[in-house]
Amino acid sequence: MNVSLPRGTRDYSPGEAILLNKIISTIEETFKRFGFHPIDTPGIELLETLTGKAYGDDAKKELYILEGKEEGLRYDFTVPLARYIAMNRDIPLPFKRYQIGKVWRMDEPQKMRAREFIQADIDIVGTSEPISDAESIAAIAQAIEAIGVRDYTILINSRLVLDALLGKLGVPQDKYTNAIRILDKLSKIGKDEVAKQIGSLGPGREEIGGMLEFIGMQGDNKETIERLKSKIPEASEEIGKLTSIIGLLGKYGLSGKITIDLSLARGLDYYTGGVWEFVVFEEGKRLPSIASGGRYDNLMEMYSKNSTPAVGSAIGVSRVFEILDKGEILRTNAKVHVAYIKEENQEYAMSVANAMRQAGIYVDLGLTKRALAKQLEYANSMHIRYVAILGNAEREAKRIKLRDMISGEEQTLSAEEAILKLKS
C-alpha cells in the first residue's frame, strides 16, 4: 500500500503542532482583548446553506460536497455565522464573535494555498459604523503582530467605490458583480484578459483601458481619495467612509502600512462595502494574502427576513505558519523528564512526576526500563531541558537529582526546591 496524504493537506509534527497551537492561542488572546467571544459551528453544513447567493460561481466550484448527501464542508466561517444568527434571533446586538478552526476548499494546491487549512475569524454583527470596520481590521493586525508578523501592508478598497467606477465605465448595474469577479482576477490573468472579459459585459476597449489605468495609478492615500472625489463625486458618501476607516486605523499604533488599492475586489458575492487584505512580501515578491475581510450588510437577510449589517475579517493561520521564522522547533512541551533507575524506584518517580504536574509543570515520565544513559540520550534528543534522576539514594532521602541538560550542572534538591527551580 502506498501511504500518502490527500492533495492540499499536510501533517504537523509534534514540534510544529506545538508552535501552531501557540500561534492559535496568541491570536485567540488578542481577539478576547478586543471583546470578541467564541462560538463553534459544525464543519458540515446543509448544501442549501452553502449554495445560496453568498459565494458566487467560482467559490461554489470549490465546495466540498459529501457524495450522496445534501451536505458539504464549510468553505469559510462567515456563511455558517449568518446561518447561526438566523437561528438565534434573540442575540443582543452588536454580536462580536470569533471562531478558529479548519475550513475546506476544492482549490488547486500551490504555495500558501491548500484544500484544508486553518482560519481565525472575527465578525461584528449589528452595526454599520466605520468604527466596527476599524476594530475588525485592527484586531487582526494586532494578532498577527503578536505572533511575529510586523512587516505587512493592509490593502483597502470599497466595493461601492468599484460599483461607481463600473457605472462610469458603462457596465450595466446587473453586471457589477460579474465585473468585480473579473477584476478580482487581475493579478492572476493580467490586464489584457481582464479587459477582454469586462468588454464582453458592454464597455468599449478604450474605456476599459482608461479605467484599468485609473485604478492602477500610484500615489499616497490622500492623492487617491482626491482622484476618486474628482472621478466619481456621486460616491462621496462611500469615499467618506473609506477615509474615515483609514483615519480611525491610525489611532491603533499598528506597525503595518495602510494603502488604498483600487484594484482590490474580493471575489465573494456577499461583500457590500469596504474590503481589505493583509499582504507580505518575500524577496520583493508579493505573497498570497495572510488575512482579509470586508463589510457584508446583506448576507444575513439571505437566511432570514431581517437585514442586519455586519463586518468581519479572518487570518489564514496556515499561511502565517508557513511564512514565520520558526527558529528551533520544539519536540515536546515537557520541561523535565523524570528518569528512574531500577524498577523499585518507579513508584517514587511517579509521585515526583505527579507533584510536579500538580504544580503546573509539564513532565515526561520515563516509561521504559532503559539504562540511565539511554534515558538521558532520549531527553536530549527531545530537547528537554531538565532531567530528574531518581535512584535508591534519592528515594531513601526523599530527594531529587536535577540535571540541566544544557550546562550539565546537577543539584540534589527536595521536591519543593526542584519545583521552584523548574517554575522559575
Q: Give start-end ranges of low-pLDDT stretches.
A: none
Q: What amount of the residues lies in strands?
A: 15-25%
Number of domains: 2
End-to-end Cα distance, whole Å, is 49 Å
Count of distinct strands: 17
Using only CA atoms, what is the Rg? 27 Å
Query: How many DSSP helices?
Result: 16
Find the structural class using helix and strand composition. alpha+beta
CATH class categorisation of the largest domain: Alpha Beta
Shape: elongated
CATH architecture descriptor of the largest domain: 2-Layer Sandwich
CATH fold annotation of the largest domain: BirA Bifunctional Protein, domain 2
Can you walk through the features of this model?
The chain is of the alpha+beta class and 424 residues long. The protein has two domains: 14-323, BirA Bifunctional Protein, domain 2, CATH 3.30.930.10; 336-423, 3-Layer(aba) Sandwich (Rossmann fold). It is 40% helix and 19% strand. It has helices spanning 14-33, 47-50, 57-60, 78-87, 130-146, 159-169, 176-183, 186-199, 205-215, 221-231, 236-249, 317-323, 346-358, 372-381, 392-397, 415-423; strands spanning 37-38, 44-46, 71-73, 95-104, 116-125, 153-158, 257-260, 274-279, 281-282, 285-286, 291-295, 310-316, 336-340, 363-365, 386-390, 400-404, 410-413. The strands form four sheets. An eight-stranded mixed beta sheet has the order 1-4-5-12-11-8-6-7. It has a five-stranded mixed beta sheet with strand order 14-13-15-16-17, with helices on both faces. A two-stranded antiparallel ribbon has the order 2-3. β16 and β17 form a beta hairpin. α5 (130-146) packs parallel to α11, α7 (176-183) packs antiparallel against α8 (186-199) and α8 (186-199) packs antiparallel against α9. The protein is elongated, with a radius of gyration of 27 Å. The relative contact order is 0.12. The model has no long low-confidence stretch (mean pLDDT 93).
